[in-house]
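Standup notes, protein team

Yesterday: finished cleaning the Acetobacterium bakii set.
Today: Peptidase structure.
Blockers: none.

Input for Peptidase:
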Amino acid sequence: MIALIYILLFTFVFVFGAVIGSFLNVVIYRVPRQISVAQGRSFCPRCTAPVRAYHNIPIFSYLWLRGKCAYCGGKISLRYPLVELFTGILAVLLFLFYGFTVQAIVVFSIGAILTCIAMIDFDTMTIPNGLVIALMVPTLICFFVFPEVGLLSRVIGIVAVSLPMLLLTMAVPDAFGGGDIKLMAVAGFMLGWPNTLLAAFLGLITGGIVAAVILVKKTKEKHMPFGPYLCFGIMTALVFGDIIIGWYLGIFGL
């Protein structure tokens, strides 16, 4: 009986996460195009026909329609159901990790915003200021729901990575984008300085690996977005940062 209850609870959590993912797809598409995310129904990007409610069920509708618009037959990007699947799984994993707590909700909201930032940066090589401002809301809530990170650590975290990035960009134009710098400043208050350094390190490692692959393949791409890798580092440091740092220090008996 208890197992059945947990299955139902986490099924609800997955569906909730997938529904949020469906909304994130709207944000990812509309924000760069300066279209309101609060008004107007979802529509096909090709023929602009409004999407009916029963054609807008996360993941299921994509499979049902075989990845095509119900009106013009145009191909629907696989990224839409993948984002919904990702946010559904993310919701389940976070509630497994934190339990049914406020912390889980706050961290999920951060993950949702970071997903939007990463996808938009992939598409446009820019991080919208509005999303960085939106990230400030759960970041401020973190001060209360994660009191183990002290205020001084958070204040130092604001400049621990963002200031070196700014100085490097002033010395080497286009070394980092302004959005990357702002993102790390907000993340600094969210994480505290130790985990902010970890987030930046993870972002550099993953971004460096991708850059190396691009160089090996000798593609025509001369620039790549750094925001997605910073988002990965931030989310990893937020959830597992203390565990990773504790493990690393333990190697040296510290």
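Follow-up from PR in the comments: The mean pLDDT is 91.
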